Amino acid sequence: MEKPTQCAVVGGGPAGIVLGLFLARAGVHVTVLEKHADFLRDFRGDTVHASTLRLLDELGLGDGFRQLPQSRMDNFRLPAGSGEFVLADFGLLKEPYNYVAMVPQWDLLNFLVDAARQEPCFTLIMNAEATDLLTDGSGAVAGVRYRIKDPITGGTLETHDLQAPLTVACDGRGSVLRAKSGLTPKEFPVPFDVWWFRLSRDPEEIERVASISPRFGDSDVLLSLTRRDYHQIAYLAAKGSDPELRAEGVDAFRNRIARLRPDLSDRVGEILSMDNLHLLDVKLNRLATWHKPGLLLIGDAAHAMSPAGGVGINLAVQDAVAAARILAPALLDGSLDDHTLAAVQKRRWLPTVIVQTFQRLMHRAIFNQVMAGKQPKPPRALVFLSRKFPLFRKIPARMLAFGPLPEHAPGFARRKPDA
Ligand SMILES: Cc1cc2nc3c(=O)[nH]c(=O)nc-3n(C[C@H](O)[C@H](O)[C@H](O)COP(=O)(O)OP(=O)(O)OC[C@H]3O[C@@H](n4cnc5c(N)ncnc54)[C@H](O)[C@@H]3O)c2cc1C
């Protein structure tokens, strides 16, 4: 049994690291467990939206963040018929929050962890995989059991019980703690799966296709993230088509990629076999209740997000900020109870439902059509307004950049830029 903490946070993704940083700044003793040895994760998006950029400034971290290698996304386009239209023009928003930053997620997480490590109350344990919930005599969650993994073999080196009056599950879409708690999310249909792989890139190469710009094919879509010496590619095709794709073989797959990105056709031979592809089973779901006595779930663990619109990271960050605002005072004065946990869900419920509804509409209007080999059908009024009145693009830009009911950093987390 190890020294108890005031809050055990499981998962070092955007939700868990931001929650750990905020609670530590409030003076709450917080321990974050992350099952991986580092934050190097390619199979995630890189978008840092305006709401997060503003939070970083409020935390006094904006200048440091802007030093990280990054690119900017100025608008968001969608296909319409055989062409495309600008759904959101971020340039119409007020400076300095008039763009979406594209930063490899490991750079963002390492940067936030460096800031959190300045706080004496913050502890991060890597290679620590939560395996079960601890409960007290009344059945309330009283902490978490975790194992320290051998980084090479994945075998168990040690097992620990971490006691805490509150455990927050930030362990993502495949949440182990959610399964252990018995909470089951409502699933919404998703029309596609994602296959990830890499193609090489000359660091001097100037992109002919803007980073992350989706390329739409007859029944598939391709997204790419620009890294220094490689392109991280996400190929989207109909859900459940993995066996069919693999049966077609690697040559047919290379042709699919070359058709979507002719500028990369000179290197599709780098996909040596279908084993080079990593399949991601995309989910869109939501828990009806995000808490039980002693346990709260936030981020993808409470509501898995589709990649549509690329907003899941920011929603997870917003959950963490709202949770810290409500939890910190209650953890410090010992008044935390079920009402405190319900207050977190209440604050984040509407923004979550709005964003997921928007994603489901995008699935229906764009992805369902494309996957069925049809032309995408975004609402005609939207296409008309955007093309006829370019200023209209400010409204979707604001919704995408800040999301509904965006959070500000509470006073206890704010610092001057040079602090
Ligand atoms: C294909 C795809 C592309 C996407 N692209 C974008 C995008 O461009 N922009 C965007 O904003 N969103 C995007 N999203 C959504 C986004 O990735 C998620 O919504 C966001 O990462 C959720 O953050 P989180 O912290 O809740 O969970 P996660 O980011 O999933 O983090 C969970 C963390 O918990 C750790 N963990 C898991 N289990 C355990 C355990 N048992 N013990 C300890 N640690 C554990 C994991 O290693 C991980 O570090 C995309 C999603 C998909 C599926």
UniProtKB/TrEMBL annotation:
Gene3D superfamilies: FAD/NAD(P)-binding domain
Classification via InterPro entries: FAD-bd, FAD/NAD-bd_sf, PheA/TfdB_FAD_monoxygenase
Record bears the keyword Acetylation: no
GO molecular function list: FAD binding; oxidoreductase activity
Domain FAD-binding positions: 5-346
Pfam families: FAD_binding_3 (PF01494)
Keyword Oxidoreductase: yes
The entry's keywords: Oxidoreductase
SUPFAM superfamilies named among the record's database cross-references: FAD/NAD(P)-binding domain
Recorded superkingdom: Bacteria
NCBIfam families hit by this protein: PRK06185.1-1 (NF004833)
Designated name of the protein: FAD-dependent oxidoreductase
Organism, as annotated: Paenarthrobacter ureafaciens
